[in-house]
Amino acid sequence: MAGLTVYTNPMSRGRIARWMLEEVGADYAVEMLGYGGTMKGDAYLGINPMGKVPAIVHDGRVVTECAAICTYLAETFPDARLAPTAGERADYYRWMFFAAGPLEQAVTNRSLGVVPSEDQQRMVGYGDYDRVVAALAAAVSAHPYIAGDRFTAADVYVGSHVMWGTQFGTLPKLAAFTAYLARLADRPAHVRASALDDAALAEMLAAG
To answer: What does pTM read for this prediction?
Structure first.
């Protein structure tokens, strides 16, 4: 399909969108945006008023938020077979949005030094960090992939969280996470996407 552009930065969650685009085999253009510059400029704010990346524009339609981008691309490019089957659907949506909600909130709060009290845990969507980690470890151990026996778009999103979390220390390097990542890291689309973003990052750094 023509008319697909991703707005991104190689030091961002845009790497998730790039990986997903490579998985579906889409023909896409790339617009690299800079923090505090083009990312906050009027042109991009007209696409995403949050001033955040990534975003994709497909035939004039905007999709933001990585979980939404992964879900949209899986459904838009069905030949890639990354959308869930009927038997995978429950786990697919459950863990896709667990990562977008409780996991993202718990990791962000912990990184900011925000620890909810016992009373506050009833108000936040994730309860507490340790419970989130335990639930995620159980999820990635239940099947070879997050929704069952085969790789889906949910693994792009959940897997990216686990990769970055264990790399940067926001998630512990549990055996369950290491085993799960071993099934993801060598995927050709992931290797291609990483190489493209690494090259873009080197170019940006060289340009100052």
So the answer is: 0.95
* Distance, CA of 131 to CA of 103 (rounded, Å): 10
Rg for the chain, CA atoms, rounded: 17
pLDDT digits (tens, 9 = 90+) for 72-128: 999 999 999 999 999 999 999 999 999 999 999 999 999 999 999 988 998 888 999
**Domains of the chain in sequence order:** 4-81 (3.40.30.10), 89-188 (1.20.1050.10)
Q: What is the pLDDT of residues 122-150, one digit of tens each?
A: 888 899 999 999 999 999 999 999 999 99
Q: How far apart are the first and last CA of the chain?
A: 34
The region, left, alpha or beta by phi > 0 then psi within -120 to 50, assigned to residue 7 is beta
Secondary structure (3-state) at 6: strand
